[in-house]
Amino acid sequence: MTVRPRGRFGHSQNPAPRDQGDETGWQRQVLDLARLVGYRLAYHTHDSRRSAAGFPDLVILNPRDGRLVFLELKAERGRTSPEQLAWIAGLQACGQVAEIVKPSDIGLVHALLTGLVDSRMEWEAALLAGLVDSRMEWEAGT
Question: What is this structure's pTM?
Answer without folding.
Answer: 0.78
